[in-house]
Amino acid sequence: MDGNKEAGHRALVLGATGFLGRRLLPELLSRGIPVRAMVRQPGKIEPGLRERMEVVQGDALDEEDLARALTGMTAAFYLIHSMGGRSIARNRVYAETDRRIAETFMRAAGRTGLGRVIYVGALGETGPGLSEHLRSRAEVARILSSGGPRATVLRAAIVIGAGGASFEMLRYLTERLPVMVCPKWIDTRIQPIAVRDVLEYMIGCLLAPETAGESFDVCGPEVLTYREMIQQYAAARGLARRVIFRVPLLTPLLSAYWVDLVTPVASGIAHPLIEGLKSEVVCRDSRIDKYVPVKKTPFHEAVRIAFSEETSGPGVTGF
């Protein structure tokens, strides 16, 4: 990227210790962009990164904390999202919390004159049948786009990277179950994207002012069913081809409890992921490629990279 484009940017990262945030910090720093992270527990930021950036302690539900963190920043990466917890019953509470945080952020951003906000939301169909998880993501995107800073919304399907909930569910199912009984979502069409490509799009949007005020689909190069993703994962790991039986009566709720039983992914997290697979999640346009050209990573390569990032568990190469 043109080094001149980085000049003048000062970025706040919210959700800096999460799946995307902890990867985004070193990428921004490597491009010479001054970074500030607001976190509840500063000790969770890696020591090597803390020495190269500013870390402030704060609560995203506290408008004063957010205003202090936003002061002097030109842009913010909004990566706060509550997927869910151990219990499915808590998911509605998490959705309400996400709404309140987004509204608090917008009030603080208005006070401090923030210019840009970049948000990674969820790709999926719209309409009355939308899952609660996708409705929450869409609501946060709407709030962030409602005024004040100019928002760029990136809508992604399944993101492939070590530690991501979607990838962890895929890898544990494939590693642990040579024979599976699955519901009809096993044949839903999906366009997964490598986590490193998401990061490239995020930073590219910061450096491309034309993307301000826009919403883009971001996806990898392949459209696959979940069944095909399982089989490609198995092949990449050198495992035998998985035997998959599709049954019509396994609901998303029952599927979530099944995933909870056979993987470390709790039902409260699995349920919104599975609900999101009721409708296909594929890119409807590629407008972003005009502004942010990214060499898209094939699925099998994204899986290989995820293996290399693992330090424990079934995703480790040679398991």
Low-confidence stretches: 312-319
Distance between the termini: 38 Å
Spell the H/E element sequence: EHEHEHEHEHEEHEEEHEEHEHHHH
The helix content, as a percent range, equals: 40-55%
Number of helical regions: 12
Choose one word for the global shape: globular
Lateral strand order in the biggest sheet: 3-2-1-4-5-6-11
Taken as a percent bin, the fraction of beta residues is 15-25%
Number of strands: 13
Please compute the radius of gyration using only Cα atoms. Answer: 19 Å
Residue-averaged pLDDT:
82
Question: Can you summarize the main beta sheet?
Answer: 7 strands, parallel
Class of secondary structure makeup: alpha/beta
Primary descriptors:
319 residues, alpha/beta, seven-stranded parallel β-sheet, two-stranded parallel sheet, 40% helix, 16% strand, globular, disordered C terminus
Please tell me about this protein's structure.
- This protein is α/β, with parallel strands linked by helices and 319 residues long.
- Helices cover 40% and strands 16% of the residues.
- It contains twelve helices and 13 strands.
- The chain has helices at residues 21-30, 47-50, 63-70, 91-112, 132-144, 165-176, 195-207, 226-236, 252-262, 267-275, 288-291, 299-309; strands at 11-14, 35-39, 54-57, 75-78, 116-122, 150-156, 159-160, 179-182, 189-190, 193-194, 215-218, 224-225, 243-246.
- Strands 3-2-1-4-5-6-11 form a seven-stranded parallel β-sheet, sandwiched between helices. A two-stranded parallel ribbon has the order 7-10. A two-stranded parallel ribbon has the order 8-13.
- Helix 2 (47-50) links the parallel strand 2 and strand 3 (54-57).
- Helix 8 (226-236) crosses helix 12.
- The longest helix has 22 residues, at 91-112.
- The chain is globular and about 55 Å long.
- It starts with 10 loop residues before the first strand and ends in a 10-residue tail after the last helix.
- The relative contact order is 0.14.
